[in-house]
Design a protein that fits this description.
By secondary structure, the chain is mainly beta. The protein has strands at residues 2-6, 9-12, 17-24, 32-38, 45-50, 56-58, 66-71, 76-81, 90-97, 103-104, 108-113.
């Protein structure tokens, strides 16, 4: 199983980025999928989650700015991030699991400058 995240980068506050997470070795449509992030000196936190049934959850800090989605045909998970803030700076990870997290992808760095 491999989850390959991409799409990170450096943007100014107010900008947008779209993260992608390509899955291999599993069909992500059968799993609950999530995006997590970890900022320096902080614990890893859940940013957004989409269940196998399509229900979504967002952390309060990103609600209204981020959108999680998936393309089952491409076996890829996405995170559209708009109106980015400096406090969104972190390494972003995608994850898959039946109940908890069973698989982690390698992170992609997102840096937002003011």
């Amino acid at each position: 199983v491999q989850l390959q995240a991409s799409g990170g980068g450096s943007v100014q506050a107010g900008g947008s980025l779209r993260l992608s997470c390509a899955a291999s070795g599993l069909f992500l449509g059968s799993y609950n999928m999530g995006w997590y992030r970890q900022a320096p000196g902080k614990e890893r936190e859940l940013v957004a989650r989409i269940s196998s049934g399509g229900s979504t959850y967002y952390a309060d800090s990103v609600k209204g700015r981020f959108t999680i989605s998936r393309d089952n045909a491409k076996n890829t998970l996405y995170l559209q991030m708009n109106s980015l803030k400096p406090e969104d700076t972190a390494v972003y990870y995608c994850a898959a699991g039946a109940k908890g997290v069973d698989y982690w992808g390698k992170g992609t760095q997102v840096t937002v400058s003011s």
